[in-house]
Amino acid sequence: MSHVPISGTNRALVAAAIVIAMTSGIGLTTTIGTVQAVDPNAHELAVVTGRGYALRTIVFQVEPGKAEGPSLATVKPGQIVEVHHRKISGREVALSIEILPPEQQRGQP
Amino acid sequence: MSRGAAVAGTLSCLAALLIAAACQARRELGDPLPGLTPEQQERFAAGQVEFERTFAPETGLGPLFNADSCGECHEEPVTGGPGDEVETHVAVFDPIRSFCDPLADKGGPVFQQHATPALTAAMGIDKEPIPAAATVVAGRSTPDLFGFGLLDAVPDAAILALADPEDKNNDGISGRPNRFVDGRLGRFGRKALVPTLHEFNAGAFPTEQGVTDPEAPAEESIGGAPIPPGVDPTPDPEIAQRALNLTDDFVRFLAPPSPHVLDAEGKRGQKLFGTLGCVACHVPALRTGDHAVKALRDKKVYAYTDLLLHEMGPDLADICFGLATPSEFRTEPLMGISASSVFLHDGRAKTLDEAIRLHGGEALAARNRFASLSSRDREALLKFVRSL
Q1: Of A106, B46, B133, B306, which has the highest C-beta tally within 10 A?
Q2: Nearest CB to B105: which of A52, A57, A100?
Q3: What is the 3-state secondary structure (H, E, C) of A27-68?
Q4: Which domains does chain A have, with CATH numbers?
Q5: How far apart are CA B192 and CA B332, in angstroms?
Q6: pLDDT tens-digit profile of B121-138?
Q7: CA–CA separation, B310 and B173 (whole Å)
Q8: Which ipTM was obtained for this model?
Q9: Is residue B233 included in any domain, yes or no?
Q10: Pairing of the two strands A44-51 and A28-39
Q11: In a domain, B71, yes or no
Q12: What percent of chain B has pLDDT over 70?
């Protein structure tokens, strides 16, 4: 297979297309919740979310290097995270993870 | 007619008008807030119908549930009041990491006490099984809902201004805010987990009745397992947004009780309530902020709570919830307590006197001062609390 060189302009266009695909509104969901469990070996992050007492656990697939934000090894149960995710092949795949600021974590005024 | 007779006549008319106005202002339990528009009063009335609506399996009940209507629990002495039901909440607390797991992946934190016949037939259970991971099972009594719309309208800043998590003023009383799973300030529920009244109501449909609504559209699991096919054929959401909103309006517009007129003994009890230090947590009044509903805007609400968590000692401890440790509880609003026949978060106290004596932790000093009062003074204080 011959290698076709990509010009700087084309490379930028491809990158932009990927970014648009990742961040377009289609199927993209944002969840803010408390980390219930982290399994770096299975690349899974379990987050509690919900409405009132109707709480739910969502398990996110976090592929190394594919989700923006901290690595799973640094995420701890009890932390509040914001996850942008999309359902792919029946699984919630994290596109980015952000740990929210400390004042929202500890019950400080 | 003499001038004196004319003055006397005018004064008596004035007195009659004042008495009439006072009679008109006095609300009965279960009445809507004063100052609602006719349209809001209509929503309150329609919301009460939704609140009292009884569900059956064919209309969305279950497959797990605690009650078949909101009004089944919030029923005494009027709709929206407290009830005698005690439900089951479960969580797991990790004291080393200070982490609370509400067991949401195993059906928690609310474990329903009843199952529909279809679920019983399919799984052989008559209530939701408690997971083996649970270390503590907590009972939760049914509170009254009087004045909750006013509590909802208190600005976050007003609650946070009362917090003193490090007890910097050295009065032995801390008070710290709880936060919902997404970090927002909590205020509703015995552990102050839920930020808004609307979310509290929206979450109650699936957790208490097994009825899904547009804002909580997923059916509760069976201890974390999916519902067996055919057991819950009603399409989700099982109620419309309008029914949810009307239910919310009913609760939001439910007035707090009119305070009883205190006699000399009651006034003495009110003074003792202050001097004993009860008011450090049971803050007499909060003020609502700006609000789209005029009847909820800039109003003083005599709720006798700070909506914050306080350490209450090991004897009352049960589950954690959010940031609340097992022994931390939100200061229970005393507004409407006159309608209650059991007290504390799990209804263990059968009298107000017993409830006060069961206070521990930060409330221990105030409790001890109460216990050392003469019986005459104790009765005066209890008379005041019973007037709320």
Answers
A1: B306
A2: A57
A3: CEEEEEEEEEEEECCCCEEEEEEEECCEEEEEEEECCCCCCE
A4: 29-104 (2.40.50.320)
A5: 10
A6: 999 999 999 999 998 999
A7: 8
A8: 0.91
A9: yes
A10: antiparallel
A11: yes
A12: 94
Contact at 8 Å (CB) between B90 and B136? yes
Instruction: Give A36→chain B minimum CA distance, Å.
Output: 7
Q: Which residue in the set A34, A46, A77 is minimally distant from B181, CB to CB?
A: A34
Highest mean pLDDT among A12-21, A85-94, B7-16: A85-94
What is the average pLDDT across B62-67? 97
pTM of the model: 0.89
Structure tokens at B237: 């959401």
B280 falls within a domain: no
Q: What are the CA-CA distances from residue B149 to residues B33, B83, B142, B246 (Å)? A: 9, 19, 17, 13
DSSP string over B1-68: --HHHHHHHHHHHHHHHHHHHHHHHPPPTTPBPTT--HHHHHHHHHHHHHHTPPP-GGGT--SEES-S
Contact B298, B327 (CB under 8 A): no
Look at residue B228 and give its three-state secondary structure.
coil
What is the tens place of the pLDDT at every residue in A41-58? Answer: 999 999 999 999 999 999
Contact B202 A51 (CB under 8 A): yes
Instruction: Kindly determine whether residue A55 and residue B109, on different chains, have CB atoms separated by under 8 Å.
Output: yes
Residues in a beta bridge with B111: B88
- Is B139 in contact with B346 (CB distance < 8 Å)? yes
Q: What is the rounded end-to-end Cα distance, in angstroms, of chain A?
A: 62
Q: Does B202 touch chain A (CB under 8 A)?
A: yes
Structural domain of residue B220, as residue ranges?
38-145+197-253
What span, in angstroms and rounded, lies between the C-alpha atoms of B118 and B228? 10
In this complex, the residue of B104, B183, B202 whose CB is nearest that of residue A55 is: B104
Q: pLDDT class for A1, splitting at 50, 70, 90?
A: very low
